[in-house]
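Box 3.1 A note on notation
Throughout this textbook, protein chains are presented in two layers. The first layer is the amino acid sequence; the second is a token string describing backbone geometry. Keep the layers aligned when reading.
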Amino acid sequence: MALLALQSVSKSYGALKVTDNITLSVNKGETLGILGPNGAGKTTLFNLISGDVRCDQGQVLYAGNDVSRLTPHQRCHAGIGRSYQVPQPFGNMTVFENLVTAACFGGQQSEKQAWQTAREVLEQTGLLAQANKPAGGLTLLNRKRLELARALATQPELLLLDEIAGGLTEHEAHELVEELRRIKARGITMIWIEHVVHALLSIADRLFVINFGQKLAEGEPQSVMNDPDVRRVYMGMEA
């Protein structure tokens, strides 16, 4: 059974249909890459999964349960964690305090458990040396790491990553990919929106491409990248 399934999900803002009858499923332990040009509806798709917005039509099923009407914090408690394209830490709090907050309120852990989780996540994401620094003063790479770390501190079964490699150097993106490999090896299911294609292709088991809110292609990564429609729409290349 799929861990996550979207069934004919649609979302409109006035006359603009940003997600149009999307159906997809993600199996436990799988990494699904999401591609599409700017404005294709990728982040809206994440918002529908995380509960930041509600679908007009269709259902969001998680672990076999309909979560379409649940709030974001209820979905987080159920095991859906996410990062945002623009990191959103509590800037006046330390890195450690950010993670304890995520573990307590997102992961529903006791204070003692949250401290232990925060320590483990700091080590996993390479942030241990930054633990007592204010989050607002971090470099871009470390803000990206903290965004990932905060999602991990909620102890998700499904992790949504929204352009987490964006703005990083080649070396920094490589470091991030290695961290994601370790997360994948722990069995965490991931859905990753990314424009840094080589990073995405190094992790993804399957790709799902959308354009104007509709599915354009889906399947094994190399086959999808060779699809003439994907090359034309996403890469601006004629087959």
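The chain has two domains: 1-79+156-239, 87-155. Residues 87-155 form one domain.
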